[in-house]
Design a protein that fits this description.
With 115 residues, this protein is mostly helical. It contains five helices and three strands.
Length: 115
């Protein structure tokens, strides 16, 4: 948690993302978000937590994705974000292409269904 970062208690966070507080607790138990805690154990949701919760809501409500699919989508989102950040640091087009394609290939292998 960064000093000065906006944090929201569960009731405010739930209202901001259009979910019930119990749903936020369920997503925390599933490991989709990990809000920080006060000394009194109140959950504090960051803007990044809210972004993830909105992504989950879109996946579930608009796409009909179940929780296993949400887990996969969140994992792939994180991998793509890391890939984009790493790619932004590479100046050599050959190295960039090789890095991007090897990581994309790994992600695609993760999506394969075992026969």
């Amino acid at each position: 948690m960064n000093a000065g970062e906006a944090l929201f208690i569960i009731s405010v966070a739930a209202r901001m993302v259009g979910m019930h507080a119990q749903t936020l607790r369920k997503y925390e138990r599933a490991g989709f978000v990990e809000p920080s805690r006060t000394d009194g154990r109140l959950r504090l949701y960051s803007r990044e937590d809210l972004r993830r919760l909105r992504q989950i809501k879109r996946l579930v409500d608009l796409r009909g994705v179940n929780l296993s699919g949400v887990e996969l989508a969140l994992d792939l989102t994180e991998q793509l974000q890391r890939l984009a950040a790493d790619a932004a640091t590479l100046d050599d087009p050959v190295e960039l292409r090789a890095t991007v394609w090897s990581r994309v290939a790994r992600m695609l292998r993760e999506l394969e269904v075992a026969e």
